C-alpha cells in the first residue's frame, strides 16, 4: 500500500477520467487514487469501475447528487484517515493540474512543509488558456483574501495541494462551513491558524480542454462574502492542538 493518496472529485468527467487515472498510475511513484463521484449522469463512475479491475490502487466512493466540492474533499479526507496514508492530495480531473507536479508537492511535505500548495502566482502568473477576465478575477481574489485574512499566500484559491496526515487529523471538519470556491481558502486559513507550515510550490495551471467547468458566479460570491465571515468567526475560535 502506498503512503500517498490523490483525491479527485468528479461530476461529468467522462472525457477526462480515464486519461487522468492512467497518467497518475504511470508515474514512477506508486500514488493511489480515490475518486469521489457525485452521481455523474454521464457514466464517469462506470469508467472508474472498469479501470479498478486494472489498477488495484484505484478506489471510488459514490455519492448521490451534486453535493459540492468541499464536502467531496472532506468525504475523501475522512476515508483517507481511516487508512494509513501519510500524504493526501487534492487534484482536479481535467488536467488543469499536471499529475507530474505531484512529485514536487510531496517532496515539499517530506522536506518540512505541512501543506504544499500548487501555486499559479508565487512566481508571476503561470496560467495557460484562461481568458484574461478569469485570470484577473482569480489573481485579485487572492489579493482580497490576503488583505482580509492577513495570510501570506499568493494563490489563496488554489485547489492542487498536498496535506500531511497530521493536518487533516487536527482540523475539525465540522467547523469547515464552505463547500465551493471558498472551501479552498478556508482550509488554508485554518491550517495556518493551527500553526502548520504552509508553503507554495510553483506550477503551471492549464485550463481544461475537455468537459465543462464547474465554476459559477454564485461560487465566487460565496467566496467574497465568506472570507469576511471566516475572518470574523476566527476571532471567537481556539486553534490549539
Automatic annotation (TrEMBL):
GO function terms (MF aspect): dolichyl-phosphate beta-D-mannosyltransferase activity
Recorded GO cellular component terms are: membrane
Q: Which keywords does UniProt give here?
A: Glycosyltransferase, Transferase
Q: Which InterPro entries match?
A: DPM1-like (IPR039528), Glyco_trans_2-like (IPR001173), Nucleotide-diphossugar_trans (IPR029044)
Question: Which Pfam families does the entry mention?
Answer: Glycos_transf_2 (PF00535)
Domain Glycosyltransferase 2-like residue range list: 6-170
Keyword Translocase found: no
Q: Which residues form a coiled coil?
A: none
Q: Which GO terms describe its biological process?
A: glycolipid biosynthetic process
Similarity comment: family membership: Belongs to the glycosyltransferase 2 family.
According to UniProt, the name of this protein is Dolichyl-phosphate beta-D-mannosyltransferase
Amino acid at each position: 500500500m502506498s503512503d500517498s493518496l490523490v483525491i479527485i472529485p468528479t461530476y461529468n468527467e467522462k472525457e477526462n477520467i480515464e486519461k487522468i487515472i492512467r497518467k497518475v498510475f504511470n508515474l514512477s511513484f506508486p500514488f493511489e487514487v480515490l475518486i469521489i463521484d457525485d452521481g455523474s449522469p454521464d457514466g464517469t463512475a462506470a469508467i472508474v469501475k472498469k479501470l479498478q479491475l486494472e489498477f488495484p490502487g484505484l478506489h471510488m466512493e459514490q455519492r448521490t447528487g451534486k453535493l459540492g466540492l468541499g464536502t467531496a474533499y472532506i468525504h475523501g479526507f475522512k476515508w483517507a484517515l481511516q487508512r494509513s496514508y501519510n500524504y493526501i492530495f487534492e487534484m482536479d480531473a481535467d488536467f488543469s493540474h499536471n499529475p507530474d507536479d505531484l512529485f514536487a508537492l510531496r517532496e515539499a511535505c517530506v522536506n518540512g512543509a505541512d501543506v504544499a500548495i500548487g501555486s499559479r502566482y508565487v512566481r508571476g502568473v503561470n496560467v495557460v488558456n484562461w481568458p484574461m477576465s478569469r485570470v484577473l478575477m482569480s489573481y485579485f481574489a487572492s489579493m482580497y483574501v490576503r488583505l482580509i485574512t492577513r495570510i501570506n499566500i499568493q494563490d489563496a484559491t488554489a485547489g492542487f495541494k498536498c496535506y500531511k496526515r497530521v493536518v487533516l487529523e487536527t482540523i475539525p471538519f465540522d467547523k469547515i462551513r464552505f463547500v465551493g470556491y471558498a472551501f479552498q481558502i478556508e482550509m488554508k486559513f485554518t491550517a495556518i491558524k493551527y500553526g502548520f507550515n504552509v508553503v507554495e510550490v510553483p506550477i503551471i495551471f492549464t485550463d481544461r480542454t475537455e468537459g465543462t467547468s464547474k465554476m459559477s458566479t454564485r461560487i465566487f460570491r460565496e467566496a467574497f462574502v465568506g472570507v469576511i465571515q471566516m475572518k470574523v468567526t476566527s476571532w471567537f475560535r481556539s486553534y490549539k492542538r
